[in-house]
Design brief:
This protein is α/β, with parallel strands linked by helices. The chain folds into two domains: 194 residues, Spore Coat Polysaccharide Biosynthesis Protein SpsA, Chain A (Alpha-Beta Complex), CATH 3.90.550; 77 residues. The chain is built from ten helices and nine strands. Strands 1, 2, 3, 4, 5, 6, 7, 8 and 9 form a nine-stranded mixed beta sheet that branches. Helix 8 runs antiparallel to helix 9. The longest helix has 19 residues. The N and C termini lie far apart (42 Å). InterPro entries: Glyco_trans_2-like (IPR001173), Glycosyltransf_2 (IPR050834), Nucleotide-diphossugar_trans (IPR029044).
Length: 283
Amino acid sequence: MKYYVVIPAHNEQDFLEGTLQSLVTQILLPEKVIVVNDNSTDHTEMIIDQYTAQYPFITKLNTLSSTDHMPGSKVINAFTKGTQLLDDAYDFIVKLDADLILPPNYFSEVASVFETNNTAGVVGGFVFEATKTGDWQLNHPMHKKHVRGAFKSYSKACYTAIGGLKNAMGWDTVDELLAQFHGFEIITLEGLNVKHLRPTGNAYNKKAKQLQGKAMYTMHYGFTITLIASLKMAMKQRKLHAFFDNMKGYFHAKKQKTPFMVHPEEGKFIRNLRWQGIKKQLF
């Protein structure tokens, strides 16, 4: 199967080489790789140039954007710019972060799923991060059927159906919800372990939480589901203010009549899906 990879990269000099090396040593090599050098001020571009010189299927795209690391818009803006250099002669497309080490069989396993299951829409493995003792430990805070945004593979049919990725906080939730709306499955592969080289930050970001509440509004969650989801998130993180910031973002988006990310019919499906998940956890 043919697949394309787009890697947004902003100041990734410490990790990018490891990611690219694990990509060029895949059992199933990609047809095309676009590395989007997103306003980097370190040696990221130099590393990209080293790989484009060796591997003709790797292309660099320089772009300018904000240095703000707010979740969602920056990375998806870079990803979307990268996809503009691609045609549609692929079987699946991959959004990949620049701080990962993939096992050599990663994309051969992903391709096998897409090849044998025409309802597979989003496929991926699991994130592992190094502990203080040097062991690699699973870090998957969401339910096991969720593919982390760091390495999402989409079938062409699914990617086309959902209209690409949303340039907003919550993109890696709404993509899977819309995939299911269009009849596609979300498939995670046990044993397909990806090493995440940059530990997930624990610093609290008030603005990010408000954007998360805004995303819940724009996904048509409605008040009750947003309330439950915000409470659950705050309890899991043991940060009560996360609940209030999330809800503040929701109410602000509602007051401003922020445009929805999804259509009313899609929103109805999303609410029903969320209620099903809530009921399964309760009963």
